[in-house]
Amino acid sequence: MSLFSDSQLLPGWANPVETNPATGPVPTTALSGVADPVDALVARCLSGEEAAYHALYDHFAGYIYRLCYGLLQNKEDAEEVLQDAFEYAFRRLDHYDPRKAGLKTWLYQIAVSRCRNKRRRRFLPTFSLQQVTGHDLQDPAATQPDAHLILNERQRTVWHALGKLSPKLRETAVLRYYAELTYPEIGHILGISPKTAESRMRLAHKALKAFLEEKP
């Protein structure tokens, strides 16, 4: 059995939803029915369509929030970086090149970079997505502040073990186990080779396993 066989090892680690309680379901035409639905949404964003920004945010916010939460292990920090990452991505959406990577991978790259900044500075300038979309957007999949209190004992143990890893190993472990990315994808996001990503994952797995085996 895998070391990380539980489906809910981190708070709020459910599949992202594609609905917004305030606006209702994302229109099906936004994410299906076309050859490249995400690229079509990007094009609509670049043409100035506000609803397209909302659709992109609603579709990807859950993924990005959970990545940030796994890396920072703090709800408030994760929410702050989530907003900052999307503000940056929306401002630079014209720089996104689908020939190099998918939009989720590009967003992961931005989020990892912002998480690194947050760890270094413990501080980020306050941005609001309202500056881009005209409305403040919230993550429909965000966990509640006390979500960590309802984890079972094993989940809490893994969560604390993850926090003991070095930032580089934690990034690799979160992207591998929780985002379920391949080593080439992880390497692209972190700016390392697939072999280096695989090597870091082996080290992370060894460290986590050793820590868990020490627990009574």
Please give the structural blueprint:
Elements: E1 19-20, E2 24-25, H1 28-31, H2 37-46, H3 50-72, H4 75-91, H5 103-121, H6 130-133, H7 153-164, H8 167-178, H9 183-190, H10 194-214
Antiparallel strand pairs: 1-2
Helix pairs in contact: 2-3, 3-4, 3-5, 3-8, 4-5, 5-9, 7-10, 8-10, 9-10
Account of the 3D structure:
It contains ten helices and two strands. It has 216 residues and is mostly helical. It has a two-stranded antiparallel sheet. Residues 1-34 and 123-150 have low confidence and may be disordered.
**Which architecture of the largest domain would the CATH scheme give at its second level?**
Orthogonal Bundle
Question: So what's the overall shape?
Answer: globular
CATH superfamily of the largest domain: RNA polymerase sigma factor, region 2, helix turn helix motif
Number of helical regions: 10
What is the CA-atom radius of gyration, in angstroms?
Answer: 18 Å
Q: Which whole number gives the mean pLDDT?
A: 76
Strand/helix succession: EEHHHHHHHHHH
Total discrete domains: 2
Within the CATH hierarchy, at the fold level, what is the topology of the largest domain?
A: Rna Polymerase Sigma Factor, Chain: A
